[in-house]
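Each record in this resource describes a single protein on a pair of labelled lines. An example record follows, reproduced without changes.
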Amino acid sequence: MNAYFRKMAGGGKSPKRTSLSNIFWSFIGAFTGIAGLHFSLFDKLLTTADINMIIGSFGASAVLVYAAIESPLAQPRNLIGGHILSALVGVFCYQLLPTQLWLAAALAVASAIAVMHLTKTLHPPGGATALIAVIGSPQLHDIGYLYALVPVGRGAVILLIVALIVNNIPKGRKYPAFWW
């Protein structure tokens, strides 16, 4: 039991603070990506509450694709695949268990993680994307699997385009590290 708790002590050192240049370009990327995403999501398919939840999920993606650009979790395959596959899983779980939201929600997040692992598309915000498919409004539920394309697929592509442009402006940054 002691060995178990010793694992929680850590032992490594905290990483160094990043450069002001990296902070600046992370800021520019996140600002531009989220602003573009916000304006692209306003259509009649979703409620404001749904849009706000989706923006939250993509806010977490923004941290990865604009600030942790070398992380495997931030690469295009993970960003696009993680969100779209998780959206599909979430819709499936909601449709399977529409009256048991607690069970559908837990199953959606756990299954999305498993699917992302199996497909090498692990992207942590995908868990939120799967959860939103379950806990979203009736309007979101009505669009069914279209949720994976609009707004999720469209949003992921917008963040990716901005990441490709902004992350490659300064000499010291290169994105992506890999595509597939």
Remarks:
- The CA atoms of residues 3 and 9 lie 10 Å apart.
- The chain is about 70% helix and 0% strand.
- Residues 20-166 form one domain.
